[in-house]
Amino acid sequence: MDEVDSAFDNLWIETPLIHSSHISDLLGCSAYLKLENLQPSQSFKFRGISRLVQQYRASHGPSVHVLAASSGNAGLATAVAARKLGVKCTVFLPVTAHQETQQCLLKQGADVVTVGQIYADSVKAMNDVAKGDVNAVIVPSYEHPVIWKEHSSMVKEMKSQLCKQPDAILCSVGGGGLIGGILLGCKTVGWDNGHLTSTEVPIIALETRGSNCFYEANALNTQGFTSKTSDLPLEIPADAPYSVQSNPRCNVVIPYLHALQSRAISLGATYAAPEVVRMALDHPGEVKCVCITDDLAMQSAQLFTNDHKMLIELACATTISPAYNYDFFWRLLDPASVLSSKDKKTKTVIFVVCGGINVTYDEIAGYTETIREAGDNKQNWPIICNGTEFHVCKQR
């Protein structure tokens, strides 16, 4: 694969890793932001998807027709890459996709088809079209080894930019494309040496409740986070919000969510990539799977926008949520509360600002009422981490 990739110039860019004085002061440690929102398609997805489109054009010729199903970000990454390479592109979106998202795609010259209520419906429609088009190739949103490999390049950049090993990397997770790249990248740069030592970088993967297929997959394959070995569950609760399929090749079972109940639409995968679930299970360090509420993500989006003057969508704000709550953050990094304030100051963490186009000024402003109503109904944020629920006080 390296020999094949060397034949292409990168369409994606190296993004900056910046120190956030705002977040560092709030948390009492050194916090850095990996600004993947600065990619040409405004999200990390452009790394892997642009490479895949390059490979498809090289193997199929200029008449290739690239198809993508998406809630927006993977579709735009495909459209931007297709435009740069001069090939036809069609993107399939759920009917719930933002009108602004559709306009972004049309501006890049893509054909847009809206169908179904969720991402899985768009995938089905895309597959049907692909069967009748001899020039069509499918660009998956997150489930392809080329995508994970190219996403891993951001970790190589982190290592050269930070010049030290971080104490944790925090990222959002949907179907697993981003965390798959981070896990692979950690292995490539030596932040995952295959032994249970202090040299592994913990990965904290955050999702919103109601759109947490990666959390459910990890819970199923670890007996509710009680075992590092991936013994398959013996039975599934009758009231489980998912159906289950076994994947013998990866030796995992994968839950398929019946419905999505979060406004973080970019996290709206109904299942996690089996290969990435396997990566997480095999990771010698710690992978913490965390679920938060939509209103916490909304508040984080507003605070981050105010502090850093950058709009971020809810999927991205999910990553940022621990940055704006001291108790939440240190419950993840120091659950046993053994670190002193002096010890905490020595810690360095990276928040992956994954980017995304599913956001507008009006939407960010509109979160205020939802946050206020949530505050009237509850005084604490409920958090679930690796099977344990805890509550943290609402604070900045």
Largest sheet: 8 strands, mixed
Written as H for each helix and E for each strand, in order along the chain, the element string is HEHEHEHEHEHEHHEHEHEEHEHHHHEHEE
CA radius of gyration is: 20 Å
User: What overall geometry do the principal axes of the alpha carbons give?
Assistant: globular
Strand content: 15-25%
Oligomer: single chain
Number of helices: 16
Share of helix among residues?
40-55%
- For the record, give the distance between the C-alpha atoms at the N and C termini, rounded to a whole number: 45 Å
Report low-confidence residues grouped into runs of 5 or more: none
Total beta-strand segments: 14
Q: Pairing-aware structural class of the strands and helices?
A: alpha/beta
Q: What integer is the average pLDDT?
A: 93
Strand order of the largest sheet: 1-2-12-7-8-11-13-14
Walk me through what this model shows.
- Helix 8 (153-162) packs across helix 9 (177-189).
- The N and C termini lie far apart (45 Å).
- The protein has helices at residues 2-5, 21-27, 45-60, 73-85, 99-107, 119-131, 145-151, 153-162, 177-189, 213-220, 274-282, 294-308, 314-320, 326-333, 341-345, 361-377; strands spanning 17-19, 30-35, 65-69, 88-93, 111-114, 136-138, 168-172, 203-208, 242-247, 252-257, 287-292, 348-353, 380-385, 388-393.
- By secondary structure, it is α/β, with parallel strands linked by helices.
- The chain has an eight-stranded mixed beta sheet, sandwiched between helices. Strands 5-4-3-6 form a four-stranded parallel beta sheet, with helices on both faces. Strands 9-10 form a two-stranded antiparallel sheet.
- The radius of gyration is 20 Å and the shape is globular.
- The model has no long low-confidence stretch (mean pLDDT 93).
